[in-house]
């Protein structure tokens, strides 16, 4: 049975490395691009059709939601590395065990998040220093968006399950449809029905529901062999799953917690800087997102080959991935430098000079160093792929610790002001890159 199952999906342990890695990564990149469209549509429509305050509220809420959902995504990502290892080794029964145990564990974690965020909404908003003039807008938006946390769990769990077996296309299909649905509903709720900020939030949740429930039912129907297991669950495996998942989740959540702390500092500079940051971060994330998703694809490549004990292929794949990532990041840096103003004007009117100039400054500083974040994503993926997620966590702490420390020391206390926040980000990337390369070379 195992051989037949394996032959149905692409294996990254065979064939041309560059070709297979790109073919596997491209749907993941496109999927992440579509996922960003969820939030960009909310932000763009909020800024254009509701107002600057709505833009600041939706943008700040995006940072908060990214932190919360990163906990779930990190857990699913950690399990995906385990699934991929078993798949590469051809051990399907072990994979089935881990799938069930991981689902129970991550599902329980999702429920706990619900029990924390709904009662604690006001506490959370005060912690991130939301200004009084947009507090009610952001509270309304975030209360609705919180509903979609469970859908985020379902989508990411089954997406990483399918990707771990070499199927990166099906998750893309569901995201494509849900992204189109999100944009259509955004326009309908905000422009036609005049629902304002609650309309943008509702559009996101409905679209997430389609993606999450759709991929769940599809996987159960199309790939029951990865889910069903007739024997007794080996609960001793749960310790390994929890360790792997928690380290990966901590790496993801620490990264986004640092961003959330920076968001709190940005909020202290007023609504205009908040709006600039909200728009620029969307552009920034969209710019380096393909490098991030390429790093995730590379991680699954490492996992499969690690399970198959193909060390030479891992070394060749690492060199290839580094060349691809740096080349891409340099090209994107050039685009950001040339079109920074035009990108900012997509989110706000041309006469919003303060917002646009602050956004351009952010984009040009960050954009110069995209190669740094590209390499860092590969290092995260490498250590996660060889079952050493703790090292990825250490690199994240270096990167985000540097960012937060420099921002909070320099921004309020020196003439640099908010510019210090912008510069602290690439400095953190580079320091983490250096540490990761040194650790990898000692392996």
Task: Tell the overall outline.
Answer: globular
Strand-residue proportion: under 5%
Percentage of helical residues? over 70%
The end-to-end span amounts to: 36 Å
The total count of strands amounts to 0
Low-pLDDT runs of 5+ residues are 1-8
Q: What is the H-and-E element order? A: HHHHHHHHHHHHHHHH
**How many helices?**
16
Assembly status: single chain
Mean pLDDT over the residues: 86
What would your notes on this structure say?
The chain is mainly α and 443 residues long. The chain is 84% helix and 0% strand. It has helices at residues 2-8, 17-50, 52-89, 92-117, 121-127, 132-145, 149-164, 170-192, 196-222, 237-267, 271-307, 311-345, 353-368, 370-385, 389-410, 419-441. Helix 2 runs antiparallel to helix 3 (52-89), helix 3 packs parallel to helix 7 and helix 14 (370-385) packs across helix 16.
Characteristic key phrases:
mainly alpha, disordered N terminus
List the helices and strands and how they pair.
Elements (H helix, E strand, L loop, with lengths): L1 H7 L8 H34 L1 H38 L2 H26 L3 H7 L4 H14 L3 H16 L5 H23 L3 H27 L14 H31 L3 H37 L3 H35 L7 H16 L1 H16 L3 H22 L8 H23 L2
Helix pairs in contact: 2-3, 2-8, 2-9, 2-11, 3-4, 3-6, 3-7, 3-10, 3-11, 4-7, 4-10, 6-9, 7-9, 8-9, 10-15, 11-12, 11-13, 11-14, 12-13, 12-14, 13-16, 14-15, 14-16, 15-16
Summarize the structure.
The chain is an all-alpha fold and 443 residues long.
């Amino acid at each position: 049975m195992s051989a037949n199952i394996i032959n149905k999906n692409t294996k990254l342990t065979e064939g041309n490395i560059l070709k297979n890695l790109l073919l596997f990564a491209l749907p993941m990149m496109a999927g992440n691009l579509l996922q960003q469209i969820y939030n960009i549509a909310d932000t763009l429509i909020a800024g254009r059709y509701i107002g600057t305050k709505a833009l600041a509220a939706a943008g700040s809420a995006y940072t908060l939601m990214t932190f919360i959902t990163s906990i779930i995504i990190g857990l699913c990502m950690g399990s995906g590395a385990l699934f991929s290892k078993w798949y590469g080794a051809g051990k399907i029964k072990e994979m089935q065990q881990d799938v069930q145990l991981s689902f129970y564990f991550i599902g329980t974690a999702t429920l706990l998040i619900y029990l924390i965020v709904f009662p604690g909404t006001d506490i959370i908003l005060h912690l991130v220093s939301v200004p009084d003039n947009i507090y009610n807008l952001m509270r309304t938006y975030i209360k609705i968006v919180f509903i979609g946390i469970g859908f985020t769990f379902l989508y990411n769990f089954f997406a990483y399950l399918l990707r771990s077996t070499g199927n990166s296309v099906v998750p893309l299909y569901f995201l494509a449809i849900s992204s189109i649905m999100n944009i259509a509903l955004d326009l309908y709720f905000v422009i036609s029905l005049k629902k304002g900020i609650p309309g943008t939030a509702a559009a996101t949740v409905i679209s997430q529901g389609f993606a999450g429930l759709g991929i769940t039912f599809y996987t159960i129907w199309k790939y029951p062999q990865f889910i069903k297991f007739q024997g007794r669950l080996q609960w001793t495996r749960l310790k390994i799953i929890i360790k792997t998942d928690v380290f990966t989740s901590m790496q993801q959540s620490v990264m986004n917690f640092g961003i959330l702390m920076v968001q709190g500092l940005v909020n202290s500079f007023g609504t205009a800087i908040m709006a600039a940051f909200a728009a620029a971060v969307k552009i920034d994330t969209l710019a380096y997102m393909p490098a991030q998703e390429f790093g995730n694809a590379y991680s699954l490549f490492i996992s499969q080959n690690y399970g198959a004990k193909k060390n030479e292929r891992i070394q060749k794949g690492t060199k290839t991935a580094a060349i691809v990532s740096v080349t891409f990041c340099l090209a994107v840096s050039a685009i950001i430098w040339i079109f920074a103003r035009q990108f900012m004007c997509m989110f706000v009117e041309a006469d919003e000079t303060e917002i646009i100039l602050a956004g351009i400054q952010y984009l040009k500083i960050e954009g110069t160093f995209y190669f740094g974040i590209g390499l860092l994503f590969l290092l995260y993926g490498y250590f996660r792929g060889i079952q050493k997620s703790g090292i990825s966590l250490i690199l994240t702490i270096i990167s985000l610790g540097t960012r937060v420390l420099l921002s909070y020391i320099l921004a309020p206390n020196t003439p640099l002001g908010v510019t210090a926040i912008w510069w602290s980000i690439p400095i953190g990337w580079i320091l983490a890159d250096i540490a990761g390369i040194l650790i990898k070379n000692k392996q």
